[in-house]
Amino acid sequence: MGPTMLKKVVDVDHALSLISDGSTVVISGFNVALTPEYLIIKLYEHYERFGRPRELLIIGDALPAVPNRGLDVVARRLYECRDGKFLRGVLIPYPGFSPWLQKLIAEELVAYYAWPLGIVSWWLREVACGRPGVITKVGLGTFLDPRARGGCMNELARRRGECSVRLVDIDGDEYLLYRAPKPNVGFIRGTTADELGNLSLEWEAALGTTLNIAQAVKARPNPGIVIAQVLRLARAYGIRARDVHVPCPLIDYVVLAPREYHWQVSSCEYDPRLSGELVPPKESVKPLELTYEKVIARRVLMELVGLAKALGRPIIVNLGVGIPAMVASVASEEGVQDLIHPTIESGPWGGTMLLHTDFGASIAPYAIIPMPDQFANYEGGVIDCASLGFMQVDREGNVNPSFIPGVVTGPGGFPVIAYGSPRIYFAGSFTAGRRVIRVDGSSRRLVIERDGDIVKFVNRLYEIVYNAKLGLIRGQEVKYITERCVFRLSSDGLVLEEVAPGVDLERDVISRMEFKPVLGRVREMDERLFAEGAMGLLDEVKELLGSPTPPAG
């Protein structure tokens, strides 16, 4: 093999030494999945030694970090030494799993631009095509609208304005145009590279926006440098053509990473079930403990089963992080998992979703597609419904899922999903703060021993991330599901429809809100939600499932 075939496989310092000051660096990574952690850490170590590259703008298609991993490690070092020279800004959809990056943002040590996951992934495709940016209705009437924040989340970002959201008119209709500097450096990750630089992702838990990052960097004008982190090398043309995810001409350098910098997810170095290489036999599912969170997940599942019955077929859903992600486990307990095709923003379809900092991966998915294609399903309303979390809801039904003063979590995939889904089941606890709420399975009721001191149903949101008025115009069906009550969105605002057994309507619901909801025909929530054992949902949908297997567990 001649040296020309091997020149792309280089020492990490050699590759990083080619990055210029002032570069715009786009980095793949959905928490730990697809995060080129070795390149990130070594980039900052290179800066510490040589004082360059500096004044970087970092763009992430999601977040290349979790606590004490990836970009969070770099952010901690920057915060501790109060260094404002390495980064000039970040465009990151979800800093929520990086506590040190949040500190940098909150204390104005770095400019922070917050765009949704789907917008960033589509923006990379648009840049690759040589277009000016993403034109979409996503973000109208929210914090992304330039008549509000325009996605600039601290004063430094507002002053510099490198990443912008503009209002544009097309045939008398309002759209938003998202623009940012074209990236000239790309950090991506794969499992295997051959000697020419062809890249495969066979051990990765997702595909993300890997190919589009390389295309965006290589697009004209001013094609840049793409560096790929891998675990292993193959001989030239040693990867089957159908398995090559990024062709070699789009990659300039390949760097071999130690295994400790190349985990599939934050809690697991490697599990073939996460990459779809192994589909395990069906096993008994251990039921989740009967908590108020499970009650909420069960109530969402009832909506999903009812929708499948109404449509006469299995449904496609998105389940967001937090309580909504529990719905897939509850569906398995009930034996109705084959009625629901769960999807995750990062690209997996089916399987059992992982939670917390492992979110973005699924055990035994039946399909994994690129992230921009997944978000096309969301923005275009290809999915049947979504269940998303909430932090605040106002009297009009607007939702803030993640923004509070002093905490910079970002929008994640929420704005695109909430915009496009024809049906939304917002799911979350009724109050927040320290609370003691339990489920009495024997009497089938909710017991509120100590309520949370933070009101979530408020007169004014800190930030609007879902605009209910525009949702009604688009014909969306929306419910707000908590452990103690259920609301429906109407043109008059929130209509209270259900209250849990054991809950006093005035004391536990209305007095714990900053506004009074519309009182419809308030009925009691289904008592099966508060009982041990399966709810019997399988019996309601046997005709849709053919000859289903009994519920596991």
Task: Summarize it.
The protein is α/β, with parallel strands linked by helices.
Structure description:
54% of the residues are buried. Mean pLDDT is 95; it is low at 547-553. This protein has two domains: 3-257, Glutaconate Coenzyme A-transferase (3-Layer(aba) Sandwich), CATH 3.40.1080; 292-545, Glutaconate Coenzyme A-transferase. The chain is of the alpha/beta class. β24 and β25 (399-400) form a beta hairpin. The protein has 16 helices and 35 strands. The strands form ten sheets. Strands 18-17-23-26-32-33-34-35 form an eight-stranded mixed sheet, with helices on both faces. 24% of the residues lie in helices and 25% in strands.
Tally of alpha and pi helices: 16
* Class computed from helices, strands and strand pairing: alpha/beta
Annotated CATH architecture of the largest domain: 3-Layer(aba) Sandwich
How much strand? Answer: 15-25%
Q: Detail the poorly predicted runs.
A: 547-553
Count of strand segments: 35
What strand line-up does the widest sheet have? 18-17-23-26-32-33-34-35
Would you tell me which CATH topology of the largest domain applies? Glutaconate Coenzyme A-transferase
